[in-house]
């Protein structure tokens, strides 16, 4: 199979079998269990699948990768403890992980103190704005999600939006970003409600939104099970208005949880979710089709954008180690920052000293759920 690993390891000069040399140790702290397991589980599986493939292909710099994974279960304090263990005891040279914004921000100071590069897989813009020397990320930001959603709403000739946001780290941050950029798109936030991570019924908040004069659209910043509950409640209340979710629910599990209430929901996401229906000349097609087939063949599970973020992070890291020609963490950090023209599942990545994510708004696709499947909004 002509997968991307051939490209990822093409520059390696092997002088002896990879298994005969000391491994290059990389770490991952993921929410593999707990309320954010829908993020961490596909991330963990992706890293394991591709580290094995890289090692089968000869490793990196002629040396095998050794992946050391800890499960934070979404707990920020545990994540920080594991981060300390990775740098002090396991002696990793780089980190790909951090499933949530909360765990990422708890771990970031550790990697900064030890000058070890950390590629996060979480969504909030605070991870890369302001730029921190050793902290990078692969997913689109919550701010970009607001902009993509508002751009679509504007194109549909509407402007009056009701927000219902989760109060967790991602939902809270995205709400703030949406409020901040709304005016740039002529959007008026006419209702602003929220719900907690353990809430199981959002009909009171949605009733308030429904009764707001002039309401045209509902937007739900959040991730986890909350957005699926909101989606079902919208249908139960008979609210027949355009309804947007964030990229925080960009997996088939959201459609399964929301059921037929998901019909017509729009959200910004990467091309990965629509890999099979991308035009043949789409520049992202080869990457996302390859990752999708590899992941689904290995796991028997539907692909999600979250595993794709882990793929992007690992491949960016491998490319940086190759360009650095070294496993020195500072040299790797510098090479990550110089990433240019990398085609990942999230889009084309061009990093710089001022941009530790490297994606622009064109990397997002607007999707709509039709008959239980993802479709592209033309």
From TrEMBL:
Query: Could you identify this protein by its name?
Result: ABC transporter substrate-binding protein
The question of whether Transport is a record keyword is answered with yes
One Pfam family of this chain? Peripla_BP_6
Tell me a GO biological process for this protein. Answer: amino acid transport
Superkingdom of the source species: Bacteria
Q: Which Gene3D superfamilies match?
A: 3.40.50.2300
Entry's InterPro entries?
A: BCAA_transport, Leu-bd, Leu_Ile_Val-bd, Peripla_BP_I
Annotated Leucine-binding protein domain residues? 23-358
Q: Kindly give the PANTHER family that the UniProt entry links to this protein.
A: BLR7848 PROTEIN, LEUCINE-SPECIFIC-BINDING PROTEIN
Segment forming the signal sequence: 1-20
Ordered alphabetically, the record's keywords are: Amino-acid transport, Signal, Transport
Q: Which family does it belong to?
A: Belongs to the leucine-binding protein family.
């Amino acid at each position: 199979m002509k997968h991307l690993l051939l490209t990822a390891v093409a520059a390696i000069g092997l002088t002896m079998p990879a298994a005969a040399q000391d491994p290059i140790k990389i770490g991952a702290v993921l929410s593999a269990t707990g309320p954010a397991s829908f993020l961490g589980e596909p991330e963990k599986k992706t890293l394991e699948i591709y580290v094995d493939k890289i090692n089968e292909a000869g490793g990196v710099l002629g040396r095998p990768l050794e992946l050391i994974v800890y499960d934070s279960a979404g707990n920020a304090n545990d994540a920080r403890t594991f981060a300390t263990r990775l740098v002090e005891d396991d002696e990793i040279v780089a980190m790909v992980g951090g499933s949530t914004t909360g765990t990422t921000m708890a771990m970031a100071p550790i990697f900064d103190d030890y000058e070890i590069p950390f590629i996060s897989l979480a969504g909030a813009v605070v991870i890369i704005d302001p730029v921190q020397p050793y902290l990078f990320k692969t997913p689109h930001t919550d701010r970009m999600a607001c902009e993509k959603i508002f751009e679509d709403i504007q194109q549909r000739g509407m402007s009056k939006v009701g927000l219902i946001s989760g109060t967790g780290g991602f939902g809270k941050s995205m709400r703030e970003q949406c409020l901040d950029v709304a005016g740039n798109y002529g959007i008026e936030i006419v209702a602003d409600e929220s719900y907690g991570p353990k809430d199981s019924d959002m009909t009171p908040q949605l009733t308030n939104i429904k009764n707001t004069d002039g309401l045209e659209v509902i937007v739900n910043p959040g991730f986890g099970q909350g957005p699926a509950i909101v989606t079902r409640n919208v249908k139960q209340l008979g609210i027949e208005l355009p309804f947007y979710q964030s990229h925080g629910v960009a997996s088939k599990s959201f459609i399964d949880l929301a059921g037929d209430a998901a019909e017509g929901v729009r959200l910004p996401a990467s091309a990965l979710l629509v890999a099979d229906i991308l035009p043949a000349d789409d520049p992202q097609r080869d990457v996302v089709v390859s990752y999708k087939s590899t992941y689904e063949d290995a796991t028997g599970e539907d692909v999600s954008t979250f595993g794709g973020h882990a793929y992007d992070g690992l491949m960016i890291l491998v490319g940086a180690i190759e360009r650095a020609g070294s496993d020195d963490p500072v040299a790797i950090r510098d090479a990550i920052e110089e990433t240019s023209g990398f085609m990942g599942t999230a889009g084309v990545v061009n990093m710089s000293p001022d941009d530790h994510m490297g994606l622009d708004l064109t990397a997002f696709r607007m999707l709509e759920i039709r008959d239980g499947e993802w479709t592209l909004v033309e």
